[in-house]
Amino acid sequence: MDRQKFIDALFARAKAEGFEAYEAFYSSGEQFNAEVFGGEIVDYSVSESGGLGFRALINGKMGYASTEVLDEDAIDLLIDGVKNGAAVIENDDRQFIFEGSSEYASVDNYSESLAAVSAKDKIQFALDLEKITLSRDERIQRVGGCAILTSSSECAIYNSKGLNVSHKSNLAGGYVVPIAQEGERVNTGMEICVKQEFSDLSAEAIANKAVKQALDGLNAIQPESRTCAIAFDSGAATSMLSVFSSIFSADAAQKGLSLLKGREGEKIAGDAVTIVDDPHLAHSGASTPFDGEGVATYKKNIVENGVLTTLLHNLKTAAKQGVATTANASRGSYAATVGVAPTNFYIVPSETTQDELLAAMNDGILITEVSGLHAGANQISGDFSLLAKGFLIENGKKGAAVEQITVAGNFFTMLNDVVAVASDLDFGMPGSSMFGSPTLWIKSLSVAGK
Fold first, then answer.
1. Which of 162, 172, 222, 281 suits 90 as a labelling partner, its CA being 20 to 30 A distant?
2. What is the spatial distance between Cα 129 and Cα 126, in angstroms, rounded to a whole number?
3. Count of helix runs (H) and strand runs (E) in the chain
4. pLDDT at 99
5. C-alpha 70: how far from its chain's center?
6. How far is residue 201's CA from residue 204's CA, in Å, rounded to a whole number?
7. Which of 413, 416, 353 is CA-nearest to residue 383?
8. Is residue 431 pLDDT above 90, yes or no?
9. Could you tell me where the beta strands, DSSP code E, fall in 21-163?
10. What pLDDT shows up at residue 317?
11. What is the pTM of this model?
12. DSSP track, 147-213
C-alpha cells in the first residue's frame, strides 16, 4: 500500500475509533558507504530504512505506536498500540496535536547534483583520498581507515487537524585516518569533512589536515601538572558544547536534570558568549522548516552576551512553563516519542583569528582533542575530567605538542570564565542536531600531566 493510501485508511480507522486527534510521522533514509584499504574496496554498502510513527490523543492521554510495513495488518497494530499506550499513562501533562503554522521558511538543503553522483565517482574519491594521504610524507606508514559516505533523508507529518508538511535533505562526507611513525613513536590523525555538494569535497584538503594532525603528535610531550589558561580549539570546544547541550533543554530542566532551571534572564556565561540555535542554516542536514510537532522553526539566541534568554521548548514544556514553544520538538526516529533537541546549535564567532587570540592569551595550553566525554562528563553537575591532547602556548605562540594530559573543571564555571572567542567557527559530525564553536579562551582550568 502506498504511503498516502495507508495514512488515509489509518486516519479513517482512528476517526471511527473516536480518537480526539491523531498524527502520522513518516521518515525514510538512504545511506551509501564505501571504505578502501591498499587501493581496494574493503567495505561497500547501500542501505535504506524508514517507517511510520502514529500517535493519538485518547481521553487526553497520548499513545504511540510505529511500523515499518504499510499494510492492513499494520493499521490494526497501530490502533491497538496507541490505545494500550495511552491507557498506561498516569501523569496529567497536557498533550498536543498541532494544527500547523501560518507559514514556513524555505529551507533548501537537498542537492539534486549530489543525488546524481554515481557510485563509481564516490569510490574513486575514496581511492584518491587514500593515495594522496599516503603520498604526503614518508612517515605516514599506513591508513587506518578511509571512506566516502553519502546520505539522504525525508520526513513528513500529517495529522487530523490538517497539518501536511514534508522536508528532505542530503549530505556527502569523506574521512581518512593516517598513521604516522618515526622510530618507535606512533601517532594517529583523523579528519572528516561533510558538505552539501559532492563537488565541494576536497581529497587534498582532507588529507592535508589529517596528515598534519598525525605528524604533529609524533614529538608530543607530557607537560607538568598545573592550573593555567586554556584555549579549546573549534573541534574540542564543539565536543564540549555537544556533550553538555542537554542543560539547555526545558524538558531536562523540568525533570530536575539541568541546573539552568528557572535561570532565564540571568548571566550564565562570559560577555563574549552568544549561543544560537539556527534551524535555517544553509547546507546543514539538521536544518528544517518545521520541528517534530510541525511547528514552524526560527532562528533564536539561547544565550546572548552571556545572558540565558530561553531554554529549548516543545509544545508540552512550553505549556508547563507558560511560554511559547521555541519549535525545538524532536523525533529521533519515526518510532520515537516527542522530545526536545537543538537544530544547528553553535557559539557565535568574533572577528579575532585564533592566532590573535593565542597571542593575547600569551601562556597556557591549546586543547585540540578531548576524549572520554561520555564517561568523564556529568551533564547534571557540569563536572568533567577528560583526556586531552594539544599544544603548549608560550609567548603567545603555539609550541610543543602535548599528550597524556587530563583537563578538569566544571562546564558552568567554564562558560562564565570564557575570556574571548575566535573567528574560526566550525561544526562537528552531522546528525539530527549539529553543534559548532570557534576557539574559546578560558581563564583557567586544571591540567594533570606528569
1. 162
2. 5
3. 11, 21
4. 97
5. 30
6. 9
7. 413
8. no
9. 21-37, 40-58, 61-67, 140-159
10. 98
11. 0.95
12. EEEEEEEEEEEEETTS-EEEEEEEEEEEEEEEEEEETTEEEE--EEEEESSGGG--HHHHHHHHHHH
The span from the CA of 137 to the CA of 315, in Å, is 55
Beta carbons of 157 and 290 less than 8 angstroms apart: yes
- The burial class, CB within 10 Å (0-12 / 13-18 / 19+), for 69 is exposed
pLDDT over 70 for what percent of the chain? 100
Express each pLDDT in 395-411 by its tens digit. Answer: 999 999 999 999 999 99
Q: What is the pLDDT of residue 279?
A: 98
> Is there a contact between 119 and 34 (Cβ–Cβ < 8 Å)?
yes
CB contact set of 416 (below 8 Å; sequence gap of 6+): 267, 268, 269, 270, 306
* Segment 92-129, tens digit of pLDDT: 899 999 999 999 999 989 999 999 999 999 999 999 99
Instruction: Give the integer Cα–Cα distance in Å for 270 and 417.
Output: 6
**Each residue of 315-353: pLDDT tens digit?**
999 999 999 999 999 998 999 999 999 999 999 999 999
**What backbone phi and psi angles, to 5 degrees, belong to 431?**
-175, -165
Degrees, nearest 5: CA angle 43-148-125: 110
